[in-house]
Design goal:
By secondary structure, the protein is α/β, with parallel strands linked by helices. The chain has one domain: Spore Coat Polysaccharide Biosynthesis Protein SpsA, Chain A. Helices cover 29% and strands 24% of the residues. It has helices spanning 30-40, 54-62, 82-93, 113-120, 146-155, 163-167; strands at residues 3-9, 24-25, 28-29, 45-50, 71-74, 100-105, 129-134, 137-145, 172-175. Helix 3 (82-93) packs antiparallel against helix 5 (146-155). The mean pLDDT is 92.
């Protein structure tokens, strides 16, 4: 199965005080770490969806090592919420050879490559539908087989992303609570 990592990093990060694509901590820039997470977790390619401060975020990506080259999509309507970013990313993947997209968010800095590997192994082919769970609570990343992309795009509005689409279908939960918390970081620490 060919899997593309789809990293959503378009938001303005109002509570954070800066776009999350530009945040760094003692372990480095979240954006480049998330790209490495997807690569090290076994994704065949990585596409990043940018929006707020897209030019600055693109410079961070351009400065990354050559082996971390990624595709970049700028979601023109990113301010409408995660749904717009997810829709733009999935639309960009339509012309790819990917069987599935493994979707994650830039503001999950405690994820490790084993989380990506487990979720990738949670489904096969274009019908795959799986997501990480942390102590039984669904979270990211989410594996979306190609057969689900159009439905996810149609239901992704505002900050909902794929929530409604996933709630209406059997999704394989892949427990990852022994590896990470899966908590998103919305405010400076």
């Amino acid at each position: 199965m060919q899997t593309t990592g789809l990293l959503l990093a378009a938001g303005a990060g109002r509570r954070m005080g800066t776009p999350k694509a530009l945040v760094a901590d003692e372990r480095g820039a979240w954006l480049t770490r998330a790209v490495a997470l997807l690569r090290d977790g076994g994704c065949d390619s990585v596409t990043v969806v940018l929006g707020a401060a897209a030019d600055d975020a693109r410079r961070l990506l351009d400065a990354a090592p050559a082996d971390q080259h990624v595709g970049v999509v700028v979601a023109a309507d990113w301010a409408q919420g995660m749904g717009a970013s997810l829709g733009a990313g999935l639309a960009a993947l339509e012309e790819s050879a990917a069987d599935a997209a493994l979707v994650t968010l830039v503001d999950l800095p405690d994820l490790v490559p084993e989380v990506v590997r487990r979720v990738r192994a949670g489904g096969e082919g274009p019908a795959a539908l799986a997501r990480a769970a942390y102590d039984g609570v669904p979270g990211h990343p989410v594996l979306l087989g190609r057969e689900h992309w159009a439905g996810v795009r149609a239901s992704a509005v505002g900050d909902q992303g794929a929530r409604d689409y996933l709630a209406a279908r059997p999704v394989r939960l892949v427990e990852c609570g022994d590896l990470a918390t899966g908590h998103d970081v919305d405010a400076p620490r």
